[in-house]
Amino acid sequence: MLLAQPQAYHAPTVEWLVARSDLVMRASVAEVSKEPLPPFRAWIIVTLKVHESLKGTPPETLQFAEDSDAGDKRYDGWKDSGREFLVFLSRNPRYRAGEKEIEARFPFTRYDGSGWTLFRLGPAVPQEERWYPPPSGLFSSTLDVLETPVEILEAARRAVAARRRAVGEVRMHELSLPQRVMEWSGDRADWNFLQVPVDSQLEILARAMIQSPSEVLSKRGNSAGKRKGEAWWDGFWTGRMSAAKNDDERGQVKAGRDRQYQNEIDELRASGVEALGHFKSKENVALLKSLLNDDLVPVRMAAAKAVGKEGAKEAAAALVNLLKDKDASARRAAVMGLGEIGARESVPALMELLKDEDPAIRRAVAWVLGPQLRVKEAAPEFVKLLKDGDASVRAEAAQGLGWVGSRAAAAELVKALQDAEAAVRWNAAGALQNLGAKEAAPDLIRILKDPDLQVRRSAADALAALGAKEAIPEFLRMLRDDLGDDQPTAARALGLLGAKEAVPVLLSLLPHRSAFIRTAAANALGELDASDAVEALRPGLADKVDWVRAEAATALTRLGSKAGVPVLLEEARKGTFTAQLIALNALRQPEVYRKLKAKGLTRDIQGQPEGFSAAWSKEAGLPLVGARRDETQEYPAYEGRTHLLRALESVARSSWGVVVIMEPDQVRLLPPEEALKFWTAWWEGDKQKK
Strands 192-197 and 172-177, how do they pair? Predict the structure, then answer.
């Protein structure tokens, strides 16, 4: 049985818990201790006795800590009764050997993707009585509900075996389900999601939800005994029917029950369509394309999103037809789908929708014509939309001009810096940056005093990218203002602008109380090649905050110190800050590193087939090898001083998940796992040489 309350209407399947946990085991409680957490809470420190390891190799002594009520006696009860559990644990990203703080003391923690991480294999104990009653079952990816210890353990073993055969990182899909289905497990809310891995089981389930939703919904009724959820709903409608006074009222009750059932069927179909979008095959695309004309609006919407995600160009014509749908949400879904597909043949129809009465449609079209398709013909229309009555449309139009506009549009964007809506102002600043509008520097400097923090940040980024050294005095003022929120922003800008005069102030900020400021100061010192900062940066390697440690290590590595390498490798092994590995190039190939860092672009790279990363590396005289198309997404270049290294880092930090490896004659992009192996082997080899 489940022991913990679910997080806000989300429940995991056993397959998802297995996929995302580092340790899965059958265990019991060996010892329990507490550390008070005033005024009314406590850390409960649990020592487990492992009876069977299903996934991973647990250490001899396995402990984890849980923040709970000071009066919580559940673990004591489970210890005394010898109750066994199925336990899911993950590596603790905060763990550091010898750390005194309890959150960082133990190498493993209960998987935090869901509150459901311990499954009691046996009856309840009396100490559970004052807590929320645990739900009665655990879902599998086939929507079976596992209730007995035998069912739960066997399903977990099957899931572990399946993950051993799988290749690559698992992705999660949140499957929207009706209340009735969620209640099969004993718990539900007004809106429910089941966390499942994206695998062949989900594809099978998705097709069943689309093509035979009534069978999916009635599946539980054919099992031995009624599930709790079905019993509740049956009792609800039976009670309503019994209370009806005449045939008319009984007819109304029956109609209400039928509507509820149809709503559940509709929700299952729409949810199945959304899930099927993960799987690319001709059969799936054909099915999704046929659903673009479905009678149900949510199904049409989900199908439009799914074919867009599939990149199914053959569905473009059907999506263009859906642009005329009476329902605004369906039209918007079609717009977004066309953007995902990259259907340039849809541009005329999309341009017409810039006049749609629904601002959400105008905003979506502006996003597709701008960042997605980069239609230069849309620039005049975007200028008109800067005066739209809806602020979100104005903001999207401003952003779009940064992708499709010319320097002639800069004057209109400068006017937009005075817009009443902050989102318009910060998007206008970003667009001026993308257009390389150096003449806008005085106006951007003025909005460094804007009341909105995001506007100030956007202006600072633009000024740094434009190489506006005249902004340095203002950034120094911001850096010294300990009462403001602008110190991290100013530090980053000063680093990019090469403002060596900022080094003394940055050094004074390394021990600052704010982790964000410590991080920004370390980063800027690395950017500025401040060789005299090496000793001041060393304490950052022992900082309590992981991202501060990572940034201090990165800065030290950029400055030629090997002291930060173990920290970078340690953080990468945890699966965090993998992109920071790029700094190791400064030690391995310092000349190439300096060349890439110093090289700035002076031309626009939009539209080049080799893509973003390839164009940057080519500009530096180094070919890019081993990159797939999805790792070389095109981005607009800035005509101002923009470091190639910073651009490559932004790719590495992106969802494409690649790490840059610099060689004397080429640049490689590797997946994080391969890059970690490469740098670990290099570091071990470097140590052996000594």
Answer: antiparallel
SS3 assignment, position 203: helix
Residue 155, amino acid: A
- Secondary structure E strands in 13-92: 23-37, 41-55, 62-69, 84-91
Q: Find the range with the poorest average confidence among 78-82, 339-343, 610-614, 622-626.
A: 610-614
| CA gap 12, 7 in Å, rounded | 10
* Whole-number Å distance between alpha carbons of 319 and 314: 10
Instruction: Report CA torsion sign: 225, 228, 229, 234.
Output: positive
Between 320 and 26, the higher pLDDT residue: 26
Are the C-beta atoms of residues 189 and 209 closer than 8 Å to each other?
Answer: no
Would you state the structure tokens that stand for residue 391, as one six-digit string? 């602020």
Average pLDDT of the chain to the nearest whole number: 82
Alpha helices in 440-545 (DSSP H): 441-446, 453-465, 472-480, 487-496, 503-509, 515-527, 534-537
**Spacing of C-alpha 628 from chain mean position:** 21
CB 251 within 8 A of CB 244: no
Q: Does the pLDDT value for residue 296 go beyond 60?
A: yes
> How large is the angle between the packed helices 328-341 and 297-310, nearest 10 degrees?
10
**pTM of the complete model:** 0.68
Q: What is the pLDDT of residue 228?
A: 54
**Pairing between β-strand 10-12 and β-strand 192-197 as defined by DSSP bridges:** parallel
d(CA 221, CA 408): 67
CA distance 474 to 476: 5
Decide: 640 and 468 in contact? Cβ < 8 Å: yes
Which tens digit of pLDDT belongs to each residue from 10-66?
A: 788 999 999 988 899 999 999 999 998 888 899 999 999 999 999 998 888 899 888
Are 462 and 430 a contacting pair, CB within 8 Å?
yes
CB atoms inside a 10 Å sphere around CB 567: 24
Question: Does 96 score more than 90 pLDDT?
Answer: no
34 bridge partner residues: 44
pLDDT digits (tens, 9 = 90+) for 579-606: 788 889 989 998 888 877 766 533 333 3
Over range 502-515, report the average pLDDT.
95
Query: What are residue 123's DSSP bridge partners?
Result: none
Q: Is 164 exposed, middle or buried (0-12, 13-18, 19+ CB in 10 A)?
A: exposed
Write out the DSSP string of 609-633.
TTHHHHHHHHHTT--EES--GGGS-
∠ CA 188-190-193, rounded to 5°: 65
